[in-house]
Amino acid sequence: MDNRCPAAHPDDPTSCAGSVVVTVLDARNAGADGCEHHAARLLASLDRGRVYPLPDAPDGAAVRVFTAAGTIRPFCWLAGPRTDPYRLSRAENRARRHDFPSGDLPS
User: Fold this and answer.
1) What is the dihedral of CA 64, 67, 72, 77, to 10 degrees?
2) In 3-state terms, what secondary structure has residue 29?
3) Which of 4, 48, 49, 76 is least crowded, fewest Cβ atoms below 10 Å from its Cβ?
């Protein structure tokens, strides 16, 4: 896919949704600028990632990306079973912890 934002993973088949408006940083401060769509997908795939608005970003862009990332499974474009916690979204993992407060998650 040509002309996609830097936050778009090469294996992610989706197109950008809007302009580049945020920067996503990983735990080591390596980053990529992206549209809200790809930035959320990237953030969902990172451990301890962060998102920051670019100076000309619309109000709430970083919050929308952060919120969306919490509901997206890591590397969501990959097919296959999704039962291990590291393959689930943060929201799914929170729900599982709520359902099984002792930490005994089903396999």
Assistant:
1) 20
2) coil
3) 48
Residue type, 55: P
11 burial level (CB within 10 Å; 0-12, 13-18, 19+): exposed
Average pLDDT over residues 8-36: 96
SS3 41: helix
Q: What is the DSSP letter of 53?
A: E
Measured in whole angstroms, how far is the alpha carbon of residue 17 from the centre of its chain?
14
pLDDT digit string, tens, across residues 23-64: 999 999 999 999 999 999 999 999 899 999 999 999 999 999
42 and 66 Cβ atoms separated by less than 8 Å: no
Q: Say whether pTM exceeds 0.85.
A: no
Q: Residue 97 corresponds to which tokens in the numbers above?
A: 């912890």
Q: What is the pLDDT of residue 99?
A: 58
Question: What is residue 52's DSSP assignment?
Answer: E
Helices (H), 45-79: 61-69
- Cβ contact 41:12 at 8 Å: yes
